[in-house]
Each structure stands twice: as structure tokens, then as C-alpha cells.
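Usage

Read records sequentially. Each one opens with the input sequence:
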Amino acid sequence: MILVGGLFFVLLGELSVLLDVYLGSLAQLLVVPLSLFLTPFLLGGFVAMIHGALEGSTSVGTFVRGGKDNYVSMLGATVVFVGILIGLSIVGTVVLIIAGAAGFAVGGGIVVVALVSVVLLVGFAVVFMFVQFYDAAIVVSDDRAIDSFSRSVGLVSQNLASVIGFSVVFLALTLLGQGPGMALYLSSVEFTQTGETVVTSTSTLWLSIAVTLIVGTIVTAYAYTYFVAFYTSLLEGRRND
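and closes with the structure output:
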């Protein structure tokens, strides 16, 4: 049953790919609002379905109820999360420009830019690691949007070593689920200088969609089950302290 939830989640991503390929820049006008308003429902339902399965039973009804009951908090948290990413991107871009200009002025521009880029990438990863459990906090712990981030940061701070290990494994699973389909997708399209996507092999494109739906669904279901189970273990560890 969890595979059904995973399929819903993966379908949204593949729909975005097809819209981008066949509608070009117009797709962004559809994909951005679609993702913003639909992802909270899908993610809330998916986490609820997994949590139900871990507790003993789950169903498509669990998915629907989880999506509906947690929608407002999930939407608010999604907006906050996107805002954090945008803010970090702006700060990172400004820092990179300043560091690059200073580096080129003293003759070590490329090295400076590379070092600063690595530092910024690590910074992004650290921030993401600390807030990554906000969705589980909303569904499993019944937190509101802002409180979910506080709980996530608190749990990570108290279990830093284990969370780092979890994050590495979860990232590896995510890459495993998306990698094969992405490789096929990149071999089926070309990108123009204007940013448009041109299909060079329709059959390979649809093969990439099929592979992602199959592999992505299985791996996503497994990865998020691991995600929710790990989150609940962090909660239990806090109660036992």
C-alpha cells in the first residue's frame, strides 16, 4: 500500500518533467503553483500512510486523511522551507560574487571561488539536515508549521552523529531512485542557449519516465519508510532520556 503513496509522489515529479519538455517556459507557470499547492497534500498523506503502516495498518484512506488534516500546516511549512532556500541562495550568490571579485583582484580567483562554493554547499547541507524532519513533525507529532522546524532542529541537535549517518543513507537512496531515470532523460533531450528543452529521442524520454515511475516509486517508498521510522526512533529516544 505504501507503494501507492510513493507512486502519487513520483507522478508529480514526472508530470513536471513532461510539462517542461512539451510546454517550455510556459510550464513554469503551471509547475510552480501546482507543486506548491499539491506537494503539501501528497507529502502529508504519504507520511501519514507510512506512519500508519508502522503503527499496524494503513490504507489509501489514511493517505487522503493525512493529506487533508495536515494540509494547512504542511503548506505553511513548505512556504517557510522554500523561503529558507531562497534566502540562502541569495546570500550564497552575494557571498560568491564578493569572494570571486576579491579573489580575482589578488590573482587567485578560481581557487577562491571553488573554496567558497564548497563552504556554501556544506552550509546548505547543514541547514537542510537540521530542518529536514519538519514534515514528519507535522504529521507524526501534530506540530504546527513553525513548531515543526523547532522540533526538527532540537532532535537533530540531540542526535547529531546518528542524523548525519541517516542523511547520507537517505541521500544515497534518493540518488538511487532518481539516477537511472535521470540518466535516460538527459540522453533524450538537449538544452538550447535560450534554456529551452528539445527532445532528441521520444522513445528514450518515455523510457526514462517509465524507469523513474518503477524504480523511483519503489525506492521512494523504502526511503520515506526509513525516514519516518528514524524520526519516530528519535522521538522515542527523547522520551527515554
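Summary fields computed downstream for this record:
- The radius of gyration is 20 Å.
- The first helix runs from residue 2 to 23.
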